[in-house]
Give the backbone structure.
Amino acid sequence: MRPWGMAAADPLLPAATTARQPNRLLAAIPPAEQNRLALDLTLVELAAKASLYDIDEPISHVYFPLDCVISVVADLDDETVVEVATVGAEGFAGLPAFLGATSSPHRAFCQVPGQALRLDVDVMHRFFAGDGVLHQLMLRYTQAVTVFLAQNVACNQLHTSEQRCARWLAQTHDRVGRDTFPLTQEFLGQMLGVRRATVSLSAQVLQQAGLIRYRRGLITVVDESGLHAAACSCYDVIRREFEKLP
Amino acid sequence: MRPWGMAAADPLLPAATTARQPNRLLAAIPPAEQNRLALDLTLVELAAKASLYDIDEPISHVYFPLDCVISVVADLDDETVVEVATVGAEGFAGLPAFLGATSSPHRAFCQVPGQALRLDVDVMHRFFAGDGVLHQLMLRYTQAVTVFLAQNVACNQLHTSEQRCARWLAQTHDRVGRDTFPLTQEFLGQMLGVRRATVSLSAQVLQQAGLIRYRRGLITVVDESGLHAAACSCYDVIRREFEKLP
DNA sequence: CAATCTATGTTCGACATCGTACATAGCCTG
DNA sequence: CAGGCTATGTACGATGTCGAACATAGATTG
């Protein structure tokens, strides 16, 4: 229903009570497992641009976003950037560490500031020795991420910057759960791997179609379903995959 | 050293002895675990274009390639195709099933014909209940695949068709372990998500530079390191990631 | 050997995006 | 409220790729 939307607060997870929404992975595990894990989770406040892990640097923690959004990006040789994935309350950041790697050629940072629950990587691996429900959920989530990645591969090759722009806005809109959120065209250009001028043109088309409104770093989604229609089918493919998650 | 290259034959895995090389995941697990698994593995011959699983159809088996190469592709609305990943003897096909999904919005088929060891998905999950070494290896491999996917996302957005063409040829060259292999420009165009005419131009540049030779569906890599130089840095990023695997 | 596929070469205008540059205008701060 | 910073609008030619079409030539088959 609401793959990246808000969910009801879960009183069973003490550390999560101060955020506007729980992490959906953590909310889905049995109370006993929640309690066992709660002591090892640290509630952290992530500021915009805060780094979670850097290219080829050790990954020390995984993060379960509560109300923040994380971007995973590739820095190419010529210092251009492309976003390869995003993470919200539906999942966790630190896939490489979960999957047994110690580092990755990509980096993750906070895109939309907010709270997250942090878990030490070594603690996580000890925790999984018992092989509980969370482990299964994280595997299942990993699958959704691979679909997300694969769809991005196809999308970047075949769809116009305007379609991809609309999709990015629609997905972020789903994630933040508000119609208005801060976003500069410069930043969006970096995420999409296109020039700011290209974003400017796409954004104007979307605005003139009455789908969005914006002014100086603040964007508002006016017509959600219109935005979905303006986006490529990748929006639906990805959404469906995430809706399959428990 | 040889992330996608040949490896010495492994006599411990009976079912694999008829192929020119073993599957590297299976070769890396302890003999006891190998023996326990061997009974459930079926040696299959995969013809070119053979389907391993279809879009949104149940995935019944995972495949451990011996000397074949598998393509995972996305079919977009307008019946265009893009390859999102490839799988060789270094890994396995059927990631969605391994990660707990029953189907996926992408499909997998045999690109280079050859042998593979097939494992029933239910049997696999029962086998993993004991949580052995193979499970860990497959997780670790999953990580490499996510890096592969992520790099493809960036690459498709930022690099020229000529660079991507060179990278695809270099990677396939590594995989098949021979300098000459069958490949039409039409097929390569589909994998890269570009027109055949575009491949034709790229291929000519590479040929005139003395890096490759080809004639009617048969391509030969002449200058391997030259081809690496003509490819984008994505080649190295991905190679390094796969070299980290056990 | 002739007929027929099928893979490759090549061309045309069209179009999206690039790289670069400069202009405008909203917002913050002194 | 004046100055400056930063986000956005817009313009230019250059370039890569597209879509479509037609030509050529290697391979296969009767």
